[in-house]
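Lab notebook page, bench 4
Experiment: in silico fold of construct C2
Operator: M.H.
Input chain length: 186 residues
Purpose: comparison with the prior construct
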Amino acid sequence: MGHRFDPKHVAKLDNPERRKLLPPEDILNRLDVQPHHAVADVGCGPGYFTIPLARMTRGRVYGIDVSSDMLALLANRAAEAGLTHIEQVQAPAEHIPLPDASVDRILCSLVLHEVDDLDQTLAEFRRLLKPGGRVMVIEWEKKPMEAGPPMHERIEAVELETKVQAAGFQTDIWRPNPQHYIVLAQ
């Protein structure tokens, strides 16, 4: 497992450079969120993607994070935005306390390199998804660069795609910028 992101560095999670590399609305369009969908943002942090997701659906949006500090920031941002259908869930990605087949879409951005058990996390995503559901995983390319976690904590795109397929999903890979890759799965 990699180190967990330190909440005192929260400013790194929403800044102009990140918005240029990973513009939330452009990225989320590929997830095809519909107005009635229930969505889980696993490793939501302060809501970089959670808030835009909540604007795309009237269904329940679950902001899931291990950090109570991050969830408090998300709650404040949701309240400021007038979004009342976001529910904060404190839990690790491997054991999310939601019922089977309870969400239509799952987003997991820049988190899988931190989990204790990648296979269990992917099995949990499968358990949570309704039939026909989709998952979007965003991760760091495994190559030297200034930003992101140490190289030894990153997951090669082909390795992650193979694990996602082994968990029972069909996949596509998309590279929105030179630093990140996205595995789209259904």
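Observations: The CA atoms of residues 101 and 130 lie 4 Å apart. The first helix runs from residue 16 to 21.
Next step: discuss at group meeting.
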